[in-house]
Specification:
single chain; alpha+beta; Glutaredoxin; 4 domains; eight-stranded antiparallel sheet; five-stranded mixed sheet; 16 helices; 20 strands
């Protein structure tokens, strides 16, 4: 039963309404007999009930799935309206408008002057249902004074609930949607590029690559996927080897490599001039400069407020549902009048109908044109903001570079003193480590575990160890930190030094958690991964420098010396 509560309606059309979040996707069922339309309605009702614990009287009624309204008896300016309609082909349409102020439950004196509006709509489409959600806010008429701070957009819990609901499958056009990252192996590179180019993809695709040196991403892709649930699909490279595969398949302007994050909007067109500008990317240096949280916020905010050029939803809000009802009523009256004598009335109604249809088509075309212009205008604004940030960053870099040059000169002078005082080469591996740590403190550091292991090592060729350390500070360090082009650091280091190195272990070793724990170390209170290693061998004697590329300090941290167990060596023991 519809709650018997009446109050003056909140305004349907409000000036200065600001878009906060918008998403649209399709939902189908898998292994469930319950129609997705009914199932999604239940999830929406549960979500509303969860937001009004202790204030749910009348909210659980059947009216919620048909037509009605509810006004909170406990909280001011909290109102829910729902309406539904059926199409001639058996299509179902349902929409809800939910309004509330900032901070539900505040008393009158503490109530915010900002009102939030959430529009949710459902439209059947064959066996699936199109879910649309838009969150907006506005200030109450007559407000005078500073505006309250607006929180950053994020994916609502309702969207995540739908993604996690058993038996429901979500997708945007041809693109499956989840609240988790999609890991891509080198064998999947062709599929990734197909997803990027797919004309039926209706949501942005975000690709997170890994840095060449460390093999790591510069932000948490799972956290990004969670915050973007319903807005985009996040793909992350399993390893930096994927860059080699995508490089062959994507034009240069569309590539994403070496730690970059790129947002591929729908409708990628390689042959369209300047289309690549729509698909914004962030370099690893930009992420480190501004912080992963800030870059994540920028991406979420840009996509949450993005204007969608086309929609698959039959209705977008409760006003559209009411318009559907009016159209049905108009069709009914038209059929009645068709049997009535006055032909002039029929002609008049037909002309009115044609005029309204023409105005509607014109408005839709203008909307699409304006939305496209807005998208490019936003890109130009972002580019100007990026240019300002770049200039500020350059100024900061120049100051830091001057300081770094002074420090490098001082380090070079200290190094010269060390080499000048060196009369004989060190006679042990530990002495080699101590010498390079003292002579190159700006390039290499050793943990106590590494020094202890060096002291115990029985590797006979001290000169080979000396040579390896020399190439680590003089060859590997520049490759790891200063390479501006896409290169294979392992191959380049081998070509320049004649020494083998690897950033990874074999798949069996990586799959053994005990063995991988031995490749974790502490450096100045920070947990680091020392999987990368430089390899030495003489006869049946093996020696490894296990190290970590410390991006912030720009040094190589050696965490162990010798030979840690692998899946192969542990089996032989």
């Amino acid at each position: 039963m519809q709650p018997a509560i009446t109050i003056a309606a909140m305004p349907s059309v409000v000036q200065d309404m600001r878009l906060h979040f918008r998403c649209e996707f399709e939902i189908s069922h898998e292994g469930s007999k319950q129609a997705p339309f009914t199932r999604v309605l239940e999830e929406v009702q549960k979500w509303v009930l969860s937001k009004h614990r202790g204030d749910t009287r009348g909210l659980g009624g059947a009216w919620f799935r048909d037509t009605g309204r509810w006004i909170s008896p406990l909280s001011q300016r909290v109102r829910i309206e729902v309406d539904s309609a059926h199409g001639d082909a058996g299509d179902q349409f349902w929409a809800m408008r939910y309004e509330h102020p900032d901070g539900i439950g505040r008393d009158e004196r503490g109530s915010s002057q900002r009102q939030w509006r959430t529009d949710i709509s459902l439209s059947t489409r064959g066996e699936s249902v199109v879910f649309s959600m838009q969150v907006s806010h506005y200030l109450l008429p007559g407000h005078f004074g500073p505006e309250p701070a607006v929180p950053d957009p994020s994916s609502p819990l309702l969207v995540k609930n739908l993604f996690q609901a058993a038996g429901l499958v979500t997708y945007a056009g041809s693109q499956p949607l989840t609240a988790r990252e999609n890991e891509v192996t080198p064998d999947d590179a062709e599929l990734l590029v197909e997803r990027i180019c797919d004309k039926n993809r209706r949501c942005p695709l975000i690709y997170v690559s890994r840095e060449f040196g460390s093999g790591e991403t510069v932000l948490d892709s799972n956290d990004l996927a969670w915050k973007l649930a319903g807005l985009a699909s996040v793909y992350v490279a399993e390893s930096n080897w994927l860059d080699k595969e995508t490089e062959r398949r994507l034009p240069p302007e569309y590539r994403c490599w070496n730690g970059r994050i790129r947002v591929y909007l729908p409708g990628v067109q390689f042959d369209r001039p300047n289309d690549h500008r729509r698909h914004r990317y962030f370099t690893a240096d930009e992420v480190r400069r501004d912080g992963a949280q800030e870059i994540t916020r920028i991406i979420v905010q840009s996509l949450a407020r993005r204007i969608v050029l086309s929609s698959a939803a039959g209705v977008a809000n409760i006003d559209d549902v009411r318009l559907k009802k009016q159209e049905q009523e108009f069709a009914r009256l038209k059929n009645q009048l068709a049997t009535a004598p006055p032909a002039e009335m029929m002609e008049l109604l037909e002309s009115i109908n044609k005029e309204l249809e023409h105005k509607y088509r014109t408005a839709e075309a203008e909307k699409a044109t304006l939305a496209e212009r807005l998208e490019f205008a936003e890109l130009e604004t972002q580019e100007r903001d990026d240019e300002i940030s770049r200039l500020r960053y350059q100024e900061k870099e120049q100051r830091e570079d001057a300081l770094a040059q002074r420090q490098m000169r001082s380090a070079a002078e200290d190094r010269l003193k060390k080499f000048s005082g060196l009369t004989d080469l060190p006679e042990s591996i530990l002495e080699c480590c101590h010498f390079f740590a003292a002579a190159f403190p700006d390039r290499v550091a050793f943990t106590q575990r590494a020094l202890d292991a060096a002291g115990r090592s029985d590797f006979p060729k001290v000169n080979a160890v000396w040579n390896a350390l020399w190439h680590m500070v003089s060859t590997l360090h520049p490759l790891a930190f200063d390479a501006e082009r896409q290169i294979d650091v392992e191959d380049e280091f081998r070509a320049r030094s004649g020494i083998e190195m690897s950033f990874n272990e074999g798949s069996q070793t990586k799959g053994n958690s005990k063995l991988m724990r031995s490749r974790a170390e502490l450096f100045e209170g920070e947990s680091i991964d020392i999987t990368p290693h430089v390899k030495l061998q003489t006869g049946n004697k093996y020696f490894r420098f296990y190290f970590h590329i410390h991006r912030k300090k720009r040094i190589l941290v050696v965490g162990d010396c010798g030979h840690l167990d692998t899946a192969g060596t542990s089996k032989r023991k």
